[in-house]
Amino acid sequence: MATDITQEITVQGFDLQLWVATDLLRLRSLHFGFWGEGEPVKLDFRLIRQAQARYTKLLVNTVPPGVHDILDVGCGVGCNARALVQQGHKVTSISPDKNHEKFFQDAPQSLRFCRSKYEDFSSTERYDLVLMSESQNYFDADIGLSQTRRFLRPGGYLLICGMFRKQNTPKFDQVRNVEDEYLRKALKHGFQLVDRVDITPNVSPTLDLVRMAKEEYLTPLISATGNAARWKLMVAGLLFRKEFGQLRRIRKYYEDFSNSRFFSEHVRYLKLLFRCNDRGQKPN
After folding, report:
1. CB atoms < 10 A from the CB of 133, how many?
2. Stretch 28-42: mean pLDDT
3. How many H helices and E strands in the chain?
4. Bridge partner list, 160
5. Using CA atoms, how far apart are residues 259 and 210, in angstroms rounded to an integer?
6. pLDDT of 129-154, one tens digit each?
7. What is the model's pTM?
8. Closest listed residue to residue 273, CA positions, set 179, 197, 218, 173
9. How many other β-carbons are positioned within 10 Å of the β-carbon of residue 27?
10. Where does the pLDDT of residue 255 fall: very low under 50, low under 70, confident under 90, or very high at 90 and above?
């Protein structure tokens, strides 16, 4: 469930969104879950972890044959990267968030972490596949596609799994990319679309869980500043009163992202697989 607000809700180097996901909610991943048709959706963290594991499995199973070296852009806490390594891939994971780095301290030799924005990333290595799991909205599309082409071997792949707006309207403008515009830019940069799968119905139940979690955990934490409930302040760990303003910003951001029906009207969650076509039109 990574978003562009992540960098805005860091207080004195402490990532509030990461803390809510990994410490308060005890999740092992930051991304959406993948839910089957008719599967019960309730605030059961065992079920949420299973759904997130299915999402990771979906990504791993989408990697084409022959891929070995992978660049994981916007890696979060590394759940996708570790799953890829377990399948025999060599993975370089990048994130600008220093709070993510600690999750790679015990990484195997075939998994490397680099703290960097994708715009600033530089490497002499070339990769068979670039993965953007819920990270393609972090940076300008042209810059991201140009960087991807730069780091891919000839015939390499770009695998994106994330949110795209259906139309260029103010609704959900937190989601930077509009699908049609992004596909045109990808083609301009020499990327041929190999496969497109709309998994919005499978991931949108996660938004209902966001609403449930917000009501169960975030709202009581925020209200604790008003009623001075000491035990709720203890749950907040090392947060101080002034930092509850940051929690309010998280709540405001997720208002739209806690209504799965409203979300599905304006946003598609897509799994896109591109292949670099050297004969395609190159950017100017």
Report:
1. 26
2. 74
3. 12, 9
4. 132, 272
5. 9
6. 999 999 999 999 999 999 999 999 99
7. 0.79
8. 197
9. 20
10. low
Q: How far apart are CA 6 and CA 189, in angstroms?
A: 28
Interior angle at CA 239, CA 234 and CA 243, nearest 5 = 135
Q: Distance between CA atoms of 274 and 36, rounded to whole angstroms?
A: 25
- Helix 141-151 with 179-188: angle, nearest 10 deg: 40
Q: Is residue 235 predicted with pLDDT exceeding 70?
A: no
Number of Cβ atoms within 10 Å of the Cβ of 167: 10
Backbone angles phi, psi at 269, to 5 degrees: -105, 115
- Can you tell me whether residue 56 is helix, strand or coil? helix
Where do the structural domains in the chain lie, given as residue ranges? 4-203+261-276
Residues of the chain with pLDDT > 90, as a percent, come to 49
Alpha carbons 244 and 249: distance in angstroms, whole number? 9
Higher pLDDT pick, 219 / 142:
142
Domain 4-203+261-276 in CATH 3.40.50.150? The answer is yes
Q: How far apart, in whole angstroms, are the C-alpha atoms of residue 220 and residue 64?
A: 45
